[in-house]
Design a protein that fits this description.
The chain is mainly α. It contains three helices and no strands. Helix 2 (37-48) crosses helix 3 (52-64). InterPro entries: YjbJ_sf (IPR036629).
Length: 71
């Protein structure tokens, strides 16, 4: 089960932060539907070759101050 919840408005901003940090990810790859946090985490783990803890930490960090441009 996913450790985070992301709504649509937050996702649009978070997606921009993720794309800035990981330029190899496309908009199509970052398609997200609220409630599918687990699928997003699994995809990012596989695509970025990072651990679950790292991916969840990165997403949470981006959500903490959603108005900040940093991830």
């Amino acid at each position: 089960m996913a450790e985070i919840t992301i709504n649509n408005s937050d996702w649009e901003r978070l997606k921009l932060k993720i794309k800035r940090k990981y330029r190899e990810l496309s908009n199509e790859e970052l398609a997200y539907t609220p409630g599918e946090e687990e699928q997003l985490i699994q995809f990012l783990m596989n695509r970025l070759k990072r651990s679950r803890e790292y991916v969840v930490f990165t997403l949470k960090k981006g959500l903490v101050n959603i108005d900040n441009n940093r991830l």
